[in-house]
Specification:
It comes from Methylophilus glucosoxydans. By secondary structure, the protein is α+β, with helices and mostly antiparallel strands. The chain is built from two helices and four strands.
Length: 92
């Protein structure tokens, strides 16, 4: 019984750690201050990015796609300034 309980707690802890690592810490703004999604998409495509998925994740814009070299990326952007808050895969 103790092994099952410990395993369950370990699994929950690992899932929580993964969720924490994946999330970005973006500042919250009123919706009327958000920059246009289309502006961000157009700017990224002009730089050679291919966007596979674009979504609002909490207080961030988040994209999944490929950079101009064809490498997978996951990037979180500030919704007002469109600055990169967190990027995964850009340095590969």
């Amino acid at each position: 019984m103790k092994k099952i309980g410990f395993s369950l707690l370990l699994a929950i802890g690992l899932l929580h750690a993964q969720a924490t690592l994946a999330a970005a810490d973006c500042k919250s703004y009123p919706k009327e201050e958000w920059a246009s999604e289309d502006t961000l998409k157009e700017a990224l495509e002009a730089e050679g990015y291919t966007i596979k998925k674009f979504k609002v994740d909490g207080n961030c814009y988040e994209i999944y796609g490929r950079n101009k070299e064809g490498k997978k990326v996951e990037i979180y952007f500030d919704m007002k300034t469109l600055a990169i808050v967190k990027a995964i895969g850009l340095k590969d």
